[in-house]
Automatic annotation (TrEMBL):
Molecular function (Gene Ontology), one example: microtubule binding
Domain of life according to the entry: Eukaryota
One Gene Ontology term from the biological process aspect of the record: microtubule cytoskeleton organization
Protein's name in the database: MAP1B protein
Transmembrane domains' residue ranges: none
Length: 134
């Protein structure tokens, strides 16, 4: 066995190390749902009833189509078929395309995507919102 320094560039690191799953009610997908920090292992381990999908910057690939696909791949490996709800913070083209192209798979995996059709008005500003009951 050769000993010496490990080339850190060639060593693949994952955002979430392998291990037993963690169950949560609500999870904000880190870093505006960018694939640099979220991989399929994240969704295998971090299991939630609700995931907030942030990002509306197509130049920065946020939200990342890969991250949305990682959700499908990770959720397919869960032992139970509990319902998962995605809550997008923006009505992005990436989200629309992913929703349309993977709708059958979403139904099979019991994944629902919330539409942001509600608006909250507070003093002089209004913004899209949704109500979550846990």
């Amino acid at each position: 066995i050769a000993k010496g320094p490990v080339n850190s560039k060639s060593a693949k690191s994952t955002a979430v190390p392998p291990g037993p799953p963690v169950y949560l009610d609500l999870v904000y997908i880190p870093n505006h749902s960018n694939s640099k920090n979220v991989d399929v292992e994240f969704f295998k381990r971090v299991r939630s009833s609700y995931y907030v999908v942030s990002g509306n910057d197509s130049a920065a690939e946020e939200p990342s189509r890969a991250v949305l696909d990682f959700l499908l791949e990770g959720k397919a490996q869960w032992e139970s078929n509990m319902q998962v709800t995605l809550i997008p913070t923006h009505d992005s083209e990436v989200m629309k395309e992913w929703y349309q192209e993977t709708h059958e798979k979403q139904q099979e995996l019991n994944i629902m995507v919330l539409a942001s059709s509600s608006t909250v008005v507070m003093q002089d500003e209004s913004f899209p919102a949704c109500k979550i009951e846990l």
